[in-house]
Write a structure and sequence with these properties.
The protein has 195 residues and is an alpha/beta fold. The chain has one domain (6-194): Glycosidases (TIM Barrel). Helix content is 43%, strand content 10%. It contains 7 helices and 6 strands; from the N terminus they run ααβαββαβαβαβα. The strands form 2 sheets. The chain has a 4-stranded parallel β-sheet, with helices on one face. Helix 2 packs parallel to helix 3 and helix 6 packs parallel to helix 7 (179-194).
Length: 195
């Protein structure tokens, strides 16, 4: 690959054959791999001010992935509902619905209610932001009750530790950032195993 940024590639069709080769090669290689739940084809289409300019590449990326004949579902994340054209295309092309929401519980509840109306499985692929009141003790019980898959991210290796961590759970030595969060997660898992 050349050194062009992701946003440059979105509108530079001369780079698309490289992208197509990458997508089809990877999907073909793992098309029947049961370890893969779904393919997230394009992270946050429209981001970086691209808006609807990202639609042609977004649609092509789905076509390339389908050419790999994957057994797994295809999806892309809903992250900014103000991008109406992009969101409409995401909902049309995605087999399952994935979304990002770093907001408080009320915000997540509203978004989930909207997304469930499409009748497809829903997974929250980015959440948990302590400084936005997106917290394990509030959100995990809701996700469980609504049968919403979820996962959150951690600090990249070598990142400076902020005063209030955005997401991560453990220090590099394995010590919890907040022990009470680990207890919430542990309790959540134990309750799930009893059901």
């Amino acid at each position: 690959m050349d050194s062009k940024s992701g946003h440059e590639r979105v509108v530079d069709r001369s780079t698309w054959p490289q992208l197509e080769n990458f997508v089809t090669t990877v999907v073909l290689r793992f098309a029947e791999d049961q370890r893969i739940l779904a393919w997230d084809i394009y992270n946050e289409p429209g981001n970086g001010g691209m808006g609807d300019e990202s639609l042609p590449l977004f649609r092509e990326a789905f076509r390339w992935a389908y050419n790999g004949k994957p057994e797994q579902s295809l999806t892309t994340v809903i992250w900014d509902k103000s991008l109406q054209g992009v969101t409409k295309a995401m909902l049309k092309l995605s087999d399952i619905i994935t979304f990002h929401n770093y907001g408080d519980l009320l915000s997540v509840q509203k978004q989930v209610s909207d997304l469930k109306s499409y009748g497809r499985p829903v997974i929250c692929t980015e959440w948990m932001a302590r400084h936005h009141n997106s917290l394990f003790r509030a959100h995990l019980p809701f996700f469980k009750r609504e049968k919403i898959g979820c996962y959150c991210w951690g600090l990249p290796p070598g990142a400076a530790e902020p005063d209030v961590w955005f997401q991560d759970l453990l220090h590099p030595n394995g010590k919890p950032y907040r022990e009470e969060e680990i207890e919430v997660i542990r309790e959540h898992i134990q309750n799930s195993m009893k059901e």
